[in-house]
């Protein structure tokens, strides 16, 4: 079953909140900004792959959104304090 392009983008956009603050989420936001700005172009697909290859450039004024330090610093401190014990559990 082949879904229309708009439907695929809507499905992907529906999960952006789940991955908004991951590298994948940031890349998705950048890609969506480029698509909405009409900055897409088809390029040759590598010989060992199938389908179309589309390059999406972000708009010149695109700036990624970052979480405020007061939000991420406590999470970062917690993760750093637990990493040693978590790694040791995996090694047992």
What does the model show?
- By secondary structure, the chain is mostly helical.
- The chain has a domain at 5-65.
- 51% of the residues lie in helices and 9% in strands.
- The chain contains 3 helices and 2 strands.
- It has helices at 5-14, 23-36, 69-91, and strands at 40-43, 53-56.
- The radius of gyration is 19 Å and the shape is extended.
- The N and C termini lie far apart (45 Å).
- The relative contact order is 0.10.
- The model has no long low-confidence stretch (mean pLDDT 80).
What's the arrangement of secondary structure elements?
Blueprint (H helix, E strand, L loop, with lengths): L4 H10 L8 H14 L3 E4 L9 E4 L12 H23 L1
Task: Sum this structure up briefly.
This protein has 92 residues and is mainly alpha-helical. It has three helices and two strands, in the order ααββα. The protein has a two-stranded antiparallel sheet with strand order 1-2.
Low-confidence residue ranges: none
Distance between the termini: 45 Å
Taken in chain order, the helices and strands follow as: HHEEH
Average pLDDT, to the nearest integer?
Answer: 80
Number of strands: 2
Trace the largest sheet across and list its strands: 1-2
> Could you tell me the strand content as a percent range?
5-15%
Helix fraction by DSSP (H/I, runs of at least 4): 40-55%
Overall radius of gyration: 19 Å
What profile does the largest beta sheet have?
A: 2 strands, antiparallel
Structural class: mainly alpha
Number of helical segments with 4 or more residues: 3
Shape descriptor reads extended
């Amino acid at each position: 079953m082949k879904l229309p392009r708009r439907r695929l983008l809507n499905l992907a956009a529906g999960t952006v909140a789940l991955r908004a603050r991951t590298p994948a989420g940031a890349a998705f936001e950048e890609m969506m900004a480029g698509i909405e700005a009409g900055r897409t172009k088809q390029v040759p697909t590598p010989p060992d792959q199938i389908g179309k290859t589309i390059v999406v450039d972000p708009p010149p004024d695109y700036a990624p959104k970052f979480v405020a330090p007061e939000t991420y610093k406590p999470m970062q401190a917690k993760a750093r304090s637990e990493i040693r014990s978590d790694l040791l559990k995996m090694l047992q």
